[in-house]
Amino acid sequence: MVKYSWENNAFTGLEAALVLIAFVVVAAVFSYIMLGAGFFSTQKSQQVIQAGISQTSGNIAVKGEIYGIANNDTTSVEKIQFGIGPAIAGTAVDYSRLSLTWSTNNVTPVRLNYTPSSPVAGQWTVTSGNSGSPPASLITGDHIVTLLACPPGPSFPNDRFTLELFPESGAPTGISRTIPAVITRTNLLY
User: pTM of whole model > 0.85?
Assistant: First the structure.
């Protein structure tokens, strides 16, 4: 008589294949989740970088010299004149949405108001563009406009002031200068 015995060798190979497939499926699901999380964080980082670039490209830059214009008897400076334009490779700047703030060591920051006409104390205006006439409110490319700011009060010799320009988007631009010891009708401020 022949005795038959059951051998489990075939089942061991099949079980190993099933375990291997299960590991591959689990690894695939885990890698899909990890890749999804990586793509999500990369996308968020890209959005942050793009927002930063758009804000820095919206900056304005002071173009040229800054002048202090004295009153008739040249005892104090009553107006500050300077040119602005978009920063290098920057986006267009709308000067009608620009905000100016004036401060000194003795004066807390005061917001200067925009006026389309001749400014008085506490106001500012655009006097001209490259062509000599006030441009449209959008400054693009290499266009430069001249601003005339009138502080809330006169600035006397050796007074130091800070004038900050806040565009609608982007970082503010600060101008810090000192009134010269001897005031003439038009003064180059350093």
Answer: no
